[in-house]
Amino acid sequence: FNKNSEDLCPTDWLDLIQTIKNTLAAGTDKIVITHGTDTMAYTAAAVALCFKQHPVKIVLTGSCFPLDHPDSDVTKNLLGALRCITEPKVSHGVYLSWTNQAGKTEVMDALDIKPMVFDELGFKACFNQLIGTFKTPGSQFETSTRHRCTQPLTLSLAHTNLDNKAIKNSKVHQFICYPGMQLRQFCATLAAGSCVIISLYHSGTAPSQNANEAVLAAMASFPELTFLLTPLPSLYVSTPYASTVSLIQAGAILYEDLQPHVLYVILVLGLASGLAITDILAQLESHQRLCTTD
Fold this sequence. Notes:
This protein is an alpha/beta fold. It has a six-stranded mixed beta sheet with strand order 1-2-3-4-7-8, with helices on both faces. The relative contact order is 0.11.
């Protein structure tokens, strides 16, 4: 389908997933997907959760500038993706390929890519965990020798049927931390059993003062909601800060190195597959950070 990425919804993920299934059934084992940059990280996560364990190689790519722009990056990104899809050293899986302004094509695991922020012209992998690179348009692929510093996500939805109706009635909501954060009034509008993802500050913290509208107040007022905190960057923050610990003690669940958009996609697709929130979270226990008190 052809749709601006800012307008894509989880129901569009289902359409794409079904299209990929149909393509695989026809005998294809290599697929390149072109996608707008705004929500590519979300779509890449959805595709990876469903196909990363299949004997197929899927590569996503896109561009920041169209063909008629003087700085167009369409051709180099598409050529980079085609090189990636045919590269024997890149095994089956779901990847994002991006060629930077210096001409180096970086290949990333689809679940590692970070959403592009406003002043960036390319995607990056969290903790710079690359699969490998083509340093120049004519060079050989160089597999990354850097050891992976975070635990890979093993959860898979490869053999589940996804329900379009459940997608449309999703009870998963995401909030970004900000100074003076007011969460309680928003939680009052959510259905019982909803899941609230709180995207933490870069050090794995969130506002923890028990003000009338803050996070702790929302958790106390709506115990029927599930509150998830993410991500704690384990490479840099070995012990959660006291503010985060106070939220965990109040009932929130903290995840380390699990990007908010990935957690959102996991929950949305997991619920659409018929799993309960408790079942989905049980499969994520290895990413959960527990805090004990004396």
